[in-house]
Amino acid sequence: MKPTLVLVGRPNVGKSTLFNRLTRSRDALVADLPGLTRDRHYGHGRVGDRPYLVVDTGGFEPVAKDGILHEMARQTLQAVAEADAIVFLVDARQGLAAQDKIIADQLRKMGRPLFLAVNKAEGMRRDVVAAEFYELGLGDPLVISGAHGEGVHDLVELALESFPLDEVDEEEDDHPKIAIVGRPNVGKSTLVNSLLGEERVIAFDQPGTTRDSIYIDFERDSKYYTLIDTAGIRKRGKVFEAIEKFSVVKTLQAVEDANVVVLVLDARQDVSEQDAHIAGFILESGRALVVAVNKWDDLSADRREVVKSDIARKLQFLDFAKFHYISALQGSGVGGLFKSIDGAYASAMIKMPTPRLTRILMEATTQHQPPKSGPFRPKLRYAHQGGSNPPLVIIHGTSLSSLSASYKRYLESTFRQAFELTGTPLRVQFKQGHNPFADRVPAPKTEADEKRAHRQRRRGRKLYG
Ligand SMILES: Nc1nc2c(ncn2[C@@H]2O[C@H](COP(=O)(O)OP(=O)(O)OP(=O)(O)O)[C@@H](O)[C@H]2O)c(=O)[nH]1
Ligand SMILES: Nc1nc2c(ncn2[C@@H]2O[C@H](COP(=O)(O)OP(=O)(O)OP(=O)(O)O)[C@@H](O)[C@H]2O)c(=O)[nH]1
């Protein structure tokens, strides 16, 4: 599982600036999609060959006793408690604030690995900046500038140092691993009950046994599925109960771990910022997706039309996914949900043979040539599959850097149609072949090579000259 870094600190210390820097490389992947919020709080980061997840906890007001700030503080504390490493940001320019001490006290109690980062320190002397923050008793302050990227790499490397690199899970299961996610109160537990309640649950740990077992295997219509548990689901009598409430960190990790994500929305409420953040994260992760708009029973007929179009507009960037309008409470629409889960899983795991991919590519370029850019026309030579879940198509050729975004989209949708993909993103990558002429006369590398090449040229002249 990827380690999760959680950024905490009082408002305005530079958390979102740092967050953006840490997740920036992935941003390009999902940039400019209509409806996708730019102001995100969850994302993917990578340092060297180490991937990790980042959570920006937003403005943290630890003293709020009730209301929305209190609720935010509660969720922040939970994210912090579940973090693999906490990065606590303070502001070098403002110096040590009273609120920093309150937050530090709370964080210390969590017993998680904790890194104190003194931010906005560009152009300042490290030792001078660090000095006053020793008082927090959190060890050596790490002096950084999120805006300028100074010290950021070292900070992340240090924070991730003690986590083993994820070994790649080679063993491929042949059934979907499903994560059911959504913000608090949309009906996830009710849906889980309607799924598991009537189905044969194959392995289920009874109350009181290990809290770490997060996979629940079940069978439905003679097919196997694994549910990734985000809320510590336990069986009590006839029903299943969630022992924990909504958990950001577990949600993110479940999405990473799943093949297919079921995003649950509440039809009675507008698509919220939190819905959009979770949706954006799912998109970025590349997982297959089915959207379940829940509590549909509670809506009048004309209200339903309004809600449908509103959701479609706001979540336009998820248009590759199937949307289902369900009632978890009444168990209606759940069968259809499973059809889409199966379809999305099959699409996500599809095998695309090189000859077929290349043939589709050739047909596509014959129908529409890639437009010339400058003196060269991009030449697309062949395509092969580079991965699954999401399926990745790698196209090789020359002058590929001048391919336009719209031409890339054309290719993507051609592959998507040819393989009838549903419910999964498809990624297309372009690999520039090397210049074929450069390979003909390899450049001499050593003095001995140079002499050998010289001899060969002379011999060649004698023979043919
Ligand atoms: N000089 C300097 N300014 C910075 C740096 N990082 C962030 N800032 C500035 O600090 C201000 C707050 O930055 P944000 O990233 O929005 O801070 P935040 O902690 O996310 O704030 P909240 O969302 O209110 O919690 C902005 O004006 C940033 O431009 C830095 O490394 N150096
Ligand atoms: N009308 C209606 N109410 C529903 C439906 N599904 C769930 N609810 C109600 O919505 C409320 C929240 O449902 P939960 O299943 O606890 O929601 P959750 O997403 O698991 O909530 P957290 O555990 O807080 O993340 C409960 O009162 C449910 O009875 C539905 O299909 N229709």
Strand portion, in percent? 15-25%
**CATH third-level topology of the largest domain:** Rossmann fold
The global form is globular
The overall pLDDT average reads 83
Spatial ordering of strands, largest sheet? 8-9-10-7-13-14-15
The CATH architecture term of the largest domain is: 3-Layer(aba) Sandwich
* Tally of distinct domains: 3
CATH class of the largest domain: Alpha Beta
N-to-C CA distance: 65 Å
Provide the helix percentage.
Answer: 25-40%
Biggest β-sheet description: 7 strands, mixed
Number of strands: 18
Looking at this structure, what is the CATH superfamily of the largest domain? Answer: P-loop containing nucleotide triphosphate hydrolases
Number of continuous helical runs:
13
Counting helices, strands and paired strands, the structural category is alpha/beta
Which small compounds were modeled alongside the protein? guanosine-5'-triphosphate
Q: Could you list the spans in which at least 5 consecutive residues all have pLDDT below 50?
A: 26-31, 205-211, 435-444, 459-465
Radius of gyration: 27 Å
Region (Disordered): 432-465
Binding site for GTP 1: 9-16, 56-60, 119-122
Keywords: GTP-binding, Nucleotide-binding, Repeat, Ribosome biogenesis
Domain EngA-type G: 3-167, 176-349
